[in-house]
Amino acid sequence: LDKRYREVILAGMFEICSKSPGLGVEREQSMLHQLASPSLLRGLRVQGLLSDDFLTHSALITVSATRWPLCIDPQGQARRWLQKMTASQDSRQLEISRPEVTRTLSECIPAGRPVLLTGCS
Question: Are 49 and 59 in contact (CB under 8 A)?
């Protein structure tokens, strides 16, 4: 989702919530304050995430997703952040074109180990 699309969605959400009785919402409050605690945001920064609101929104979507995230990452920022974030979990990184992709996935998925596939163009 690009920045403009997110702004439109958030404005629509604000309108709906502001008309609902009992919901205290403020237009000045950002999505970051609604979705994440200050300690979670600090943790994302410690893991190497840059302090850009758009990147932080994307990271929050990634860490709270119930399915595997797809990161379109031409500058390599998401890859570096994901590597740091999953380093303590015995994560694996490999090119999608490598012959051992199937074997690595079949070993890692049942064990709950993260796999970062790169080169998916």
Answer: yes
